[in-house]
Amino acid sequence: MKELLVIIARNLVDKPDDVIVTEDMRDGATVLKLTVAPDDMGKVIGKQGRIARAIRTVVKAAAVHADEKIVVEII
After folding, report:
1. In this structure, what CATH number is given to the domain that contains residue 12?
2. Domain housing 48
3. Which of 16, 20, 61, 67 is the most exposed place for a label (fewest CB within 10 A)?
C-alpha cells in the first residue's frame, strides 16, 4: 500500500522527490503518513479536500482487497 500511495502522490506534485511516506502501526491498523513539500500541499489536499478524500478512497479500496486496514494521514 505504501508504494501505491507514493505513486499517486508523486504524480500529483511538482516536486516528486520530496514525497515521503512513513508507515506506523496503531490500534491494529497500518498508518501511512504522507509528507510533501509545503508548496505541493494544496495539490495533494485539493479544493475542499476532494483530492485527499480520493487518495484515501483508492488506498482503502486496495487495502480491503488485500484484507488489510490502512489509514492515510497527510501531514
Report:
1. 3.30.300.20
2. 2-74
3. 67
Q: What is the DSSP string of 24-64?
A: EEETTEEEEEEE--GGGHHHHH-GGGHHHHHHHHHHHHHHH
pLDDT per residue as tens digits for the range 5-50: 999 999 999 999 999 999 999 999 999 999 999 999 999 999 999 9
How many structural domains is the chain composed of? 1
pTM for the model stands at 0.93
Strand 20-26 versus strand 29-35 pairing type: antiparallel
Residues 6 or more apart in contact with residue 37 via CB below 8 angstroms: 13, 14, 15, 18
Rounded Cα gap, residues 14 and 48, in angstroms: 20
**Taking a C-beta distance cutoff of 8 angstroms, is the pair 21, 2 a contact?**
yes
